[in-house]
């Protein structure tokens, strides 16, 4: 092979990036053509936001020391934003399972494409959808009265970084759940904890207001430190050690999900 032909050949990295970009585009087009799954999952945090603000808001704010409904909106929104990411991750698990069971992945395996691009397409596309969903829920929160308290541009940037990092972590876990499920229904069931854990966290009430035996369950899980960190960045409350815990959980879940997903995807189908 001549030097000109060798130079003209694209590198493995450029091929991997090209194939990954194609898979991301496929993932986003799939979501646009079949929006019902994304919309159904997005409705859960929106409905919970409206329910807790307009039905339970006054009562819940009294338990937080007063301040009215607006004070409870401010307390509630950070948790609902992270719950939105968990809801979106359920859609990721279902989408991955559908690809595995409907034969498209088997077809991809026979094509001259970078193998990892299939997973990268799901992860990057799902993180983008999660961020867009957070923006939608955030817009609803602003419309009903949520306001950030003296958050600087750096704190807003840190909040966005935390949301993206958390979305990446849950997405890799969801991909592993989808790869390990025999069908889409099982994948949805497997990923249910991603939307149940926020209900058992500090999203709706402070941990110290829970029964003593239940407080460790709420405190030592991924959502609570992330919620408290986001709450501190947006509302100026004390973050303490929660920031390091949130980042640690995100890194640990990302690494776990990546190993789980890549190992499952590398196995030859039975």
Automatic annotation (TrEMBL):
Location (main, coarse): membrane
Transmembrane segments: 34-56, 76-98, 119-144, 156-179, 191-214, 243-266
Keyword DNA-binding among record annotations: no
UniProt-listed InterPro entries: ABC2_TM, ABC2_TM_bact-type, ABC_2_transport, Nod_factor_ABC_transporter
GO MF: ABC-type transporter activity
ABC transmembrane type-2 domain sequence ranges: 36-268
Membrane topology: Multi-pass membrane protein
Single GO cellular component term: ATP-binding cassette (ABC) transporter complex
Single Gene Ontology BP annotation: response to antibiotic
Cell location: Cell membrane; Membrane
Keywords noted in UniProt: Antibiotic resistance, Cell membrane, Membrane, Transmembrane, Transmembrane helix, Transport
Keyword tRNA-binding set for record: no
Family: Belongs to the ABC-2 integral membrane protein family.
PANTHER family (UniProt xref): NODULATION PROTEIN J
Listed name of the protein: Transport permease protein
Species of the source: Streptomyces gancidicus BKS 13-15
